[in-house]
Amino acid sequence: MNVSLILIILLIGAFVTYFAGDKLASKVALFFSLVALGCSIVLLNHFYAGESISFVSAWINQPKISFALNADGLGIAMLLLTAALTPIIIFSSFGNEYKNAKGFYALILFMAFAMTGTFLAADGLLYYIFWELALIPIYFIALIWGNGDAEERRKAVVKFFIYTLAGSLFMLVAFIYLYTKAGSFMIEDLYKLNLSASEQLWIFLAFFFAYAIKIPIIPFHTWQANVYQKAPTVGTMLLSGIMLKMGLYSVIRWQLPLAPLAAKEYMNIFIALGIAGVIYGSIVALRQKDLKKLLAYSSLAHVGLIAAGTYTLTIDGFRGAVLQMIAHGFVVVGLFFAAEVIYRRYETREISQLGGIRTQSPKFTSMFLILVLASVALPSTFNFVGEFTVLYSLSQINIWFAVLGGTTIILGAYYMLKMFQNVMLGETNSKTFADVSINEGVSFVVIIAVLIFFGFYPKPITDLITPSLETILNVINKN
Amino acid sequence: MNTLIAITGLGIFCLLFEILNLRKAIVPITILGLLGVLAINYYEFGSTASYYNNMITVSKFSTTFSSLFIIITIFLVALSHNFYENHPTKISDFVAIKIFLLAGGVAMVSFGNLAMFFLGIEILSIALYILAASERLNLKSNEAGMKYFLMGSFASGIILFGICLIYGAMGSFDVAEIHESSLSAELPIWFPIGMILMIIGMLFKVAAVPFHFWAPDVYEGSPALTTALMSTLAKVVAIATLYKLVSALNLVPSLDNQDLLGTFENIIVIISIASMTVGNIMALRQVNVKRMLAFSGISHAGFMLMTLLTIATSAGVLLYYAAAYALAGIAAFSVILYVCKNQDNEDITNFHGLGKTNPLLAAILTASLLSMAGIPIFSGFFAKLFLFNQTIQAGYIALVIVAVINSIISVGYYFKLILAMYSKEPNQERTGKPFLIYAVAVISITLNIVLGLFPSLVLDLLN
């Protein structure tokens, strides 16, 4: 099967959604995202059958840019993550009414299109184009359909846009520089380059700028919490569930293999930055009063750990990072959805105004609890597998990295359980809280099923990603 | 050559409409005429010929750029219909002047003799002076015309002086002869000095820093359609002419012979950086959209000047950049013309809530601004990409980094307008859907995106 088909489906889906009108838009969008998921699963089967899944077509002659897509195990894993989360995110929005829904859902599908392209692109420039394209829909989603004061929201969103664009433009310069050396943007040609140590350092920093802002790694995180809070929940899910994985994925796929010497030389600094994010995020999360902001900072802590894992340059670090990316993608979407479920009923996200929900809605409470426990990496959840592997790889570099990184579990447990206590437990709330509807329940159940299934049996995913991660590691270690 | 004759004929024909009292038909017939001219130009494409003792030389460069100019003029003429609705008696004059201006532009890229070059630049400039002052009851428009005329004639004088010095050095006005003798070892110092004077004059027309001071006032004061013309057609003509001047007179190798090349390149780098930076920083503070686009045009001029550093290979890149910039500009200005019709200014407040009242035009303006800011998949992105690629290959990596930082700054003011359209409440109702404005906006932005998807279409024309 042609891999570009998935991209075409999502792109056409975006247009059809726009022209389907406000009433049908959400259903049409869900339909197309499910078709894309189906195609991705078919693609997975082809991959297991041993076919090489790539598509190359010449695009621009001078400079030579080709429309090249390639899906190895890592690419397929990220593709599946995007394809699985998109319908969940769309479905989770069914309880909300949006003005101009056709534009809203069309932008979601367009964003899924761009993110899928980023994960699949095998040509540096094509990858860059998709990377940038993903930014435009989320900008408008957050700007037009976001919540809170319009003026503050504008500031937050513009800051986000300029920040991320600034980072990626330096990546563009790095790509052009690499092109002048290699004469091609194709990833395998770029992998073959032998750059000097100082060149690699500049390339590494240019990429780091782009990715550190996107992921975000401190000190480039200042846009994050405000945007997460101001964006509509769907936008927050897209940002935290999939879009920041673009940054982490790109570290493994592009940054490290293209500048291995610099990566090895300065490894400790970048691991330390990641771990600093873990500690900083956890501590700030302790003090948050807004549910969405708390989740934003907890997300900052988790991705800091993932980033630290990728910079260890070990197979365990890579594997743990990718596992944790997928696990975090699901759990964070679930948590933000839980926040949205609460908001639908109480119209507030202030933790102090919540509490006493448990007695009124046992089903919601148990689902939320499972998600909270998964996010603090309780054994038998998928997140445990990921975080444990990452911590193990950190301990191989330096035991103190693992110790400090391990605080994510302790601090995480503390602030997440405290949050759960304040939000759900306590005296019965005077306002009534209707238990989850069937629609809402389906989203929760799917997410929880994924988290628990792979928590007990992560082997399919490890088997899928390990060979391609080993290939990348070989490129890194070739000189 | 036939193109130039046909354009001039069309211009005279437009004047006759006034006499024959056929004003209603003027816009459609002129557009048809221009399409015919485009077809004539297409048949000349690829041929190389010179006419009238080398006065005019037709080459690939001149035909491709002429086609771009003709296409831009078609859009501008189409916009005239709506714009001059309130002055029906003047429309044939204004359309005719635009056609003559096009003739000047075509002469400027196909000159084979410096006399022809000067004739072309004067035809273009005088047409622009008239158009700038064409709203004769408006004080600002008068001021713009006067200012532009004074500064413009000054620049023309400098160019003329440069031509004289070159004649003194080479004993000829003929480009081919100058080209040949410019490689001789003993070149009089008057040649580089004359070239510098000519380049200064052209930089004035391009509105590059530090010769840019006229631009914001003139752009703001002129009628909006004239501003559209200045910022798209006139700018593209001027930069293409500057490029042709530097390459046809063999400036780079002749300077290389005299060890002056490094100085020349440094000057270009400095002017380019100054134009980008000053243009962008000044644009950040503007509330008038026309003024903002004037400064943005200054910064784009800085980007396009980078092509002079790689003059041997960058004609295709310049054509692509110019096309991307001009198409985005036309799309943006057609929306501005629609929004600011019957308003006494072009402030950003007029655009509040356009996303709600008129989603299509808001989307088009957004797309054109994104293209100017250099966001993929619009052609503005590829224009910058190819430009940066050329420039890095020539070894100017620091210049590219400055350019990248400038691209980031530019996002600030382009997005100010986008934010105003989508996040503010609408403050006025607009009625009417002028067909021609919609058509121009849609077609030009579509062309922009098509160029983005298939850059080779344009890029390979001149490689």
Automatic annotation (TrEMBL), chain A:
Localization, UniProt: Endomembrane system; Membrane
Q: Which family does it belong to?
A: Belongs to the complex I subunit 4 family.
Q: What's the name of the protein?
A: NADH-quinone oxidoreductase subunit M
NADH:quinone oxidoreductase/Mrp antiporter transmembrane domain: from which residue to which, for each copy? 123-407
Q: Which UniProt keywords apply?
A: Membrane, Transmembrane, Transmembrane helix
Q: What is its main location?
A: membrane
**Which interval of the chain is the signal sequence?**
none
- Residue ranges annotated as transmembrane are 6-21, 28-48, 68-91, 103-122, 128-148, 160-180, 200-222, 234-254, 266-287, 294-315, 321-343, 364-385, 397-417, 438-457
**What superkingdom does the record give?**
Bacteria
Q: Which InterPro entries match?
A: NADH_Q_OxRdtase_chainM/4, NADH_UbQ_OxRdtase, ND/Mrp_TM
Q: How does it sit in the membrane?
A: Multi-pass membrane protein
Q: Which Pfam families match?
A: Proton_antipo_M
UniProtKB/TrEMBL annotation, chain B:
Reaction(s) catalyzed by this protein? Answer: a quinone + NADH + 5 H(+)(in) = a quinol + NAD(+) + 4 H(+)(out)
Keywords (A to Z) from UniProt = Cell membrane, Membrane, NAD, Quinone, Translocase, Transmembrane, Transmembrane helix, Transport
Membrane topology per record: Multi-pass membrane protein
Instruction: Identify which top EC class this enzyme belongs to.
Output: translocase
TM annotation in the entry: 25-43, 63-84, 146-169, 189-213, 225-246, 266-285, 292-312, 318-339, 360-382, 394-415, 435-458
Which Enzyme Commission number(s) are on file for it?
7.1.1.-
Chief localization: membrane
Where does this polypeptide localize? Answer: Cell membrane; Endomembrane system; Membrane
Tell me which positions the record assigns to the signal sequence: none
Pfam families in alphabetical order: Proton_antipo_M
Q: Where is the NADH:quinone oxidoreductase/Mrp antiporter transmembrane domain?
A: 113-410
Q: What does the UniProt record say this protein does?
A: NDH-1 shuttles electrons from NADH, via FMN and iron-sulfur (Fe-S) centers, to quinones in the respiratory chain. The immediate electron acceptor for the enzyme in this species is believed to be a menaquinone. Couples the redox reaction to proton translocation (for every two electrons transferred, four hydrogen ions are translocated across the cytoplasmic membrane), and thus conserves the redox energy in a proton gradient.
Q: Which family does it belong to?
A: Belongs to the complex I subunit 2 family.
Q: How does it assemble?
A: NDH-1 is composed of 14 different subunits. Subunits NuoA, H, J, K, L, M, N constitute the membrane sector of the complex.
Full protein name: NADH-quinone oxidoreductase subunit N
